[in-house]
Design brief:
By secondary structure, the protein is α+β, with helices and mostly antiparallel strands. It contains eleven helices and 15 strands. It is elongated.
Length: about 300
């Protein structure tokens, strides 16, 4: 590649403190602009980053083994036209077109104004956004089924309790995850990768700095969750439950939402991320009645 102004380097856990302030200023509720949304998927997308003119640029593979590279929304001091101009020069040095991926819906009109060659909706990667107060209480008619599932769990397990995940209970959380994986073998390469990342989080939680909660019943952990607060949104990065324990999923999600709302009263939303085209996940996430879908787009420039 010819010499270019932008010089990218691989994103590592050591860079978390450097990029986190930029992500907080993205103005987007998309999970793609959360620290966990990047760190958990470094191995899958090969993320690299560059900071130039107080602006964060991130690039990665389009998906899996694809050699095509695409860029995230530039975040920082530079205007979008200025950032796009720099990236066009970078791509010309590499002899290829400039492509953006996962541009959130609230910014797509700005990209249209720059006359791209093509814009395509990434439907399977739309995030599901919920009212966090509704999730914390399951109040109202439309949440009756979720409330009933939670009530059943509490009646079936009168000794239930929740705890933040820490040194004193991490072994029980790991055992819960082991049993989940044993009962439900991974059915795709993506799911296998995701489980590897959950294992990594459980082994080195301090690297991520996530908020967390685990749900106990009968002295065992039956569900757990890890998330991250960005702006007014809680990103629910990991949520695992034993499906043989009725209502454990509904309960851990509601209790986590309530705990985070108590800790961060400014929160308005919880993002349960995308469904990756999985019909079962799609049905599950729709059943919680999202208040909004955060659609994402690929954008191609000459």
């Amino acid at each position: 590649m010819k010499h270019c102004i932008l010089q990218f380097k691989p994103l590592t856990f050591e860079d978390a403190g450097t990029i986190k302030p930029f992500l907080a200023g993205s103005g987007s509720r998309s999970c793609d602009y959360s620290l966990g949304g990047l760190l958990m998927w470094i191995g899958c997308f090969g993320y690299e980053y560059c900071i130039h003119e107080d602006t964060l640029f991130i690039k990665g593979r389009m998906g899996g083994d694809s050699p095509r590279e695409a860029f995230s929304l530039p975040i920082g001091r530079l205007s979008l036209p200025e950032a796009v101009s720099l990236l066009r020069s970078y791509c010309r040095c590499a002899g290829r077109l400039l492509e953006f991926s996962a541009i959130p819906c609230e910014r797509i009109d700005e990209f249209r104004g720059l006359n791209p060659m093509a814009i395509g909706l990434m439907r399977h990667y739309s995030d599901y956004l919920y009212d966090i107060r509704e999730m914390a209480t399951y109040a109202g008619k439309r949440m009756a089924k979720k409330r009933n599932h939670q009530n059943r769990f509490m009646c079936d397990n009168p000794d239930w309790r929740v705890e933040e995940i820490g040194a004193e209970n991490i072994a029980l959380v790991k055992e819960c995850f082991r049993r989940i994986c044993e009962m439900e073998p991974a059915d795709s390469a993506m799911q296998a990768y995701e489980r590897e990342q959950v294992t990594h989080v459980l082994e080195r939680p301090e690297l991520y700095g996530f908020e967390s909660l685990c749900l106990f019943a009968g002295g065992e952990v039956v569900a757990f969750t890890f998330g991250e607060v960005v702006g007014d949104t809680l990103h629910d990065h990991i949520e695992k439950m034993r499906r043989d324990v009725a209502g454990s999923g509904e309960t851990v999600f509601s209790r986590f939402s309530a705990a985070m709302l108590e800790k961060y009263p400014h929160l308005n939303y919880v993002n349960r991320e995308d469904d990756a085209g999985d019909i079962g996940l799609q049905r599950s996430k729709l059943s919680y009645n999202p208040v909004m879908m955060i659609d994402k787009y690929n954008v191609l420039f000459e």
